[in-house]
Design brief:
Blueprint (H helix, E strand, L loop, with lengths): L3 H16 L1 H12 L29 H14 L2 H12 L3 H10 L18 E4 L6 E5 L1 H9 L4 H13 L3
Antiparallel strand pairs: 1-2
Length: 165
Amino acid sequence: MWTEAQRKAASDRAKARWANPEYKKKQGDSVKKPPCCPKCGETDIAKFYVDEKGRRTNSTCRECHKIGCKERWHKRTETDRQASRAYKYGITPEKFLEMLAEQDGKCKICGIEPTTQRGLHVDHCHTTGIVRGLLCHGCNVALGSMKDDPEILLKAVEYLRNHHG
């Protein structure tokens, strides 16, 4: 985290850069350049991530960006991944390993051991931020799709029971 003094110093440096007319022109000209992904050569702006004004937010196209993200994730050590979880969800690597052991390395909902390289996902309440357990990708996405709402989940269960094959 930045201190207030570091934040102010960075802001002052940015203001000084943007006060320079040459810098402003260079930045403006770079936005006008047609897109060209340095990895695959894609030039269709529709295949790039853009902001609300239609400006590219990445130098690479969406597909190359996704590939790069996957490569970076899989290059990380398990310790790095655990540190990331600890930071994001407020649990320590030890707590993650303890939860993993308590669940026998299986999803807390379906009880199946994950088959993907990403393993189990840390499930948490989006309102309170409290970690609830470790879930496989499918169960984690299912809860999110049901907006973490028990009423919607109960309606889905009722629907499946009434329309089962």
